[in-house]
Amino acid sequence: MPGPGKEAAAVMKPGLDRNSLFAVPDFRRLWCIGLVVFVVRWLEMLAVSLFVYNATGSAFLVAMMTMLRLLPMGLFGAFLGVWAERLEQRTALLIVVLVSLATSLVLALLAQAGALAVWHLAVASFINGLSWAADNPVRRLTIGQVVGSGRMGRAMSIDVGTNNASRMLGPTLGGVIFAGVGIAGAFWVSVVLYAVALVAAFRLGWRRGPRTAPTDGVLARIAEGFAVVRREPRLRGTLIVTIIFNVFGWPFTSLVPVIGQSGLDLGPEAIGLLASMDGVGAFCGALLIAWLVPPTAYGRCYVGGITLYLAMLTLFALAPQPLLAGAALLLVGLGGAGFSIMQATLVYLAAPPELRGRVLGILSVCIGIGPLGFLHLGLLADAVGAQWACVVSGTEGLLALALTRRSWRAI
């Protein structure tokens, strides 16, 4: 099968500006698929959180819904990395999009019939988590192959910036739809958006060149990926910071609707707007990073980003009124942009080219440790309330970051 062809080769030539990435049709298609996935993710997460909280009154169960989306990363991330290496990448991407579309369609039909239950959402969250776990070793790996290593940082800035923009649109849209037509409307919107992504995946022109069939087993190939991580201090440090973020930082997003409703006394539309402030800050941060941060500063941007994130999530939880809470979430997003853009970029650049799929799969495993954080945060929320649970988690994250400085300073 043909390789990246003239389009990808053109984008790898020096001297092209940042906008030249969008001149490559396959990058546009991969970007479009990512945009759909990101918007649907945030839209559904908010709608599901509101549905579950209104149905059960349990902050713990709300946190568990998001935890179930992350669980497949820890369980299957490394295997998905090997699977992605063996399967033609366009085919793998089509499978991922089709599974997501089918899941949202089933939920839409159940909700339309008035038969939707919390356990349906739990199962669907786990299935969607499989698609999420495949994003790094499938779609983002393909982005790197299409644009080339020299432009991976810029491509990730655009991709993560799109994710952050979706965090402005997704929660706001989810809150408005939930308030207007209920959760069924949210899932029908998801179905339509996934259909757009499916068309983009079908039109993808990239084909990975032929590879020699592997003679070793799946477990041996996974072990080889872990051995590379152990040998390379930059990879090891990057993955340690990823674990800290996903255990102590990111889980707090599941409780934003709970704090908005029970702590700040907001309605669904206002909760959606509040949750979108994280995305506003992250989108602005992504733009600044794309234009101002040189490759030599990627490591500092990564560690500085998580530090700001953890500090500001604590401030958000303590905010006595919506305006201050929104400002704190704006800064949470700014820090999150630095972390999330550099996460996949640093791993991609530090890993040997022939092992990138496996190492990106291991990155998904580290992200997938997040369910421990959601379990920890959910139990804390039921014990001391959602606000103080976030304060404790953010403080623990800053302490963990300080204690592991010797490990991550290599990046």
Fold topology:
Elements: H1 5-11, H2 25-56, H3 59-86, H4 89-112, H5 118-133, H6 135-147, H7 152-181, H8 183-202, H9 218-231, H10 233-249, H11 256-263, H12 268-292, H13 298-318, H14 322-350, H15 356-367, H16 370-384, H17 386-403, H18 405-408
Termini separation: 37 Å
CATH architecture: Up-down Bundle
Helix percentage range: over 70%
What is the ordering of alpha helices and beta strands? HHHHHHHHHHHHHHHHHH
Query: Whole-number radius of gyration?
Result: 20 Å
Task: Tell me the strand percentage band.
Answer: under 5%
CATH superfamily: MFS general substrate transporter like domains
Overall strand count? 0
Number of domains: 1
Overall body shape:
globular
The total count of helices amounts to 18
Instruction: Find the structural class using helix and strand composition.
Output: mainly alpha
Low-confidence stretches: 1-18, 209-213
CATH class label: Mainly Alpha
Largest sheet: none
CATH topology group = Growth Hormone, Chain: A
Kindly report the average pLDDT value: 81
Outline the structure in words:
The protein is mainly alpha-helical and 411 residues long. The chain has helices spanning 5-11, 25-56, 59-86, 89-112, 118-133, 135-147, 152-181, 183-202, 218-231, 233-249, 256-263, 268-292, 298-318, 322-350, 356-367, 370-384, 386-403, 405-408. It has a single domain, classed as MFS general substrate transporter like domains (Growth Hormone, Chain: A). The protein is globular and about 50 Å long.
